[in-house]
Each structure stands twice: as structure tokens, then as C-alpha cells.
């Protein structure tokens, strides 16, 4: 019981802005395909949302590509502050946020454990040290080692080739990412107000790495548009700017989507992800279902230097 209280106090110190060394600042990336997101970058993305969103207890948030759980943790910190007036009791507030507002879909079994540890302070949501007691070990962060669904030798959801290195048995992770391998019935029954995250960038299809590998992040963006009733915010590679490698249709979709409100472009990905190289750079954006207009684009180089903003003119609906 004493250890549990220490973990709760740690979370409280994070909420109140106390200086606590953050292990998620230091964790090494497993690969250049699934890049861990630094906490300060997550905060920049969350700053794009309007202030009133943190005072709305009715919203359901989803990170569809949990790796360390950093998005859910930083969202929880803001909600714990924003919902003080509605839930004056801190424990009641935390229980409501964790049980009714925050959801995650992990990329692997390992990242599911890491995400639960970051959010609940316990790899098991029903564990003794969990600060939000659930009846199950998963809590609201799920992971399922799904199989690819092949038709004519290609996965109908992600394009993986039958017989490839990811065409495995259930004893190994297949990287059939749950969010983009949902059945039509699951999609029909799943809705979230806000979807935010950093999805996997590519799948190895035998075509090399970087711009030669098969991109997969566009499937996450498209699925999020189907499942979100209000906001979508992702950080993704910027290679779709020039199309190619199956991205031509996605490029047209993005350029003609007048619900994308702001976009921040980093030509050098290491400005976002220290020590990580992503060919063509990366960008993050916010899409608001209730917004209709032009997209403000800001290009950022070496953190402090920002090029003048420009506007993409959207086609009229």
C-alpha cells in the first residue's frame, strides 16, 4: 500500500510540474519504422488543441499506436488539471479520466506493457501498484497479435505480401497493427472524439528502406478519419508531399482536405527525433472535423528557426 502511494505521488508531482527525471526522454528507438516520441514533442502536438478540450469530461481519446504510452500520459496530466472544477476529489478525477476517457491500442506486446507502465504506473492495470484499478490486466490499453488477411497474396488491410517475413505463426508478432486491421463490424462499433499519436511509418516488403520501403502511416490517417468524430493529430513522414510508392492518392487526399487546420513541417527529422533519420523529414498536423478552410503550414529548422508560414488553398466542397 505504501509503494502504491508513492506511485500516486509521482503522478501528482508530474501534474503539478515538479521536476521528475523522465525516462521517456532517454529511451532508445527499437527501429526507424516505429519511432518513440519525446515528451516535449508530444506537448507541442497537444498545444494545437483548443484550451476548452481539457475541461470536457465527456470526450474519449485514443492513441492507436501506443509504444511508450507518452501521448496518453501527457493527455492525462492536462486533463487532471482541466477537470479540477468538475471533480474536486483527485482520486475520483483520476478514476474518471483513466476509466472513461483514455484508450490505447499497442503495436506489440512489449509496447503494451510499457504503455500501461507509463499511464497506470504498473504494467498490469489491475496490479497492486496501478493508480487506476481495473478488473483486467490490460485496462484500456489493448493488444492483439492479429494475423494478416490475405486476398490474392496481399493483405487487404496493409498490403503485406503473403509469404513475406511478417507472414508468421502466432508465436511471433506479425505486425498486423490492430488499428488498421479492424473488421468492418469493429469499425462500425468504434468511435472516438480525439485520435492522436505517432503511427509506424513503413513495412519491410523486400524493397529496401527509407523511401524504398512500403509506407503504412497513410492507413492510420485514413482509419482515424473514419473513427474520429472531431479531432485527429498525427506525426508522420513528409514523403507524401512528392507522392510515389503508393502515396499518390494519399497526397491528393491530404492536399484537398480542408479540415486540416495546421501543419508543422520538419525537413530534418532529427529536430524532432534526436539521432533518428527519416528521409524527407517529418510533420505533424491537426485535423478538425468542424473546421473548413485553409491550412496554415510552418516549416521549422533547427528548433528555434522558423520559416514564414504559408497557406495551402483547399478545393471547395
- Overall residue-averaged pLDDT value: 85
> Which structural category do the helix and sheet elements fall into?
alpha/beta
Q: How many E strands? A: 14
Helical residue percent band: 25-40%
Share in β-strands: 15-25%
Low-pLDDT residue spans: 1-7, 21-32, 206-211
Q: How is the biggest beta sheet arranged? A: 10 strands, mixed
What is the helix tally? 8
- Helix and strand run: HHEHHEHEEEHEEEHEHEEEEE
Distance between the termini: 58 Å
The Rg value, from CA coordinates, equals: 19 Å
What coarse outline follows from CA principal-axis ratios? Answer: globular
Give me some keywords for this one.
317 residues; alpha/beta; 10-stranded mixed sheet; two-stranded antiparallel ribbon; 26% helix; 20% strand; disordered N terminus
Describe the fold and architecture.
The chain has 317 residues and is α/β, with parallel strands linked by helices. It has helices at 2-15, 39-46, 70-82, 90-100, 109-120, 184-188, 217-227, 248-255; strands at residues 61-66, 102-106, 141-142, 150-151, 154-155, 192-197, 202-203, 214-215, 228-237, 260-266, 282-288, 295-301, 305-306, 310-312. Strands 1, 2, 3, 6, 9, 10, 11, 12, 13 and 14 form a 10-stranded mixed sheet that branches. α2 packs across α3. The chain is built from 8 helices and 14 strands.
